[in-house]
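ok so for the tutorial part 2 we go from a plain amino acid sequence to predicted structure tokens. step 1 is just haveing the sequence, like this:
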Amino acid sequence: LELQAKLLRVLQEQRFERVGGTKTIQTDVRWIAASNRDLEAMVTEGSFREDLFHRLAVFPITLPPLRERKEDLLPLAESLLVRICGELGRPPLRFDDSVGALFRRTPWSGNVRELANVLERAAILAEGERLSADDLSFSLGGSKIANSQGLHTMAEIEEDAIRRALDAAEGHRKRAAKALGIGERTLYDKLKQYGIR
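step 2 — the prediction. this is what the tokens look like for a chain of 197 residues:
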């Protein structure tokens, strides 16, 4: 609440002092604030200042989670995939027809970050020019994942992802661990757990 009061003062007066500074600095900025919390409920419970809420809520935009915007999934994924391939320095990838149904069945509790992570893992391990639902399903989170063969446990998907990463890395554990986004020690433990030699 103390920090909220300071932020409110900056918003209202358009000036501030740096930490440890004595000089007042005038600002000329436009503020954009984002939150994944219900600020109105926080105002009611007293954990967010009402005056700060009203100062920030001049033009509110509600952005529904991905699970409520199924029609946006494929165009968003295609855009992210272009960016990811560029960052990885690899030739562009495309989705085959099986991907749309997988995207629509997935709850995407991690929203765009989860989608981007799934795409990056798949792009790292991709061997061809197209990604299928099977290429993407192993890296989806949650205890049970719907893929084109039906429901699989996370352990089955994890084991499959490890085997595929090792194949793609030609057995090189360090590269496979990096592709999976885990440490080498974690990969070693998983190899023992699943009996992978």
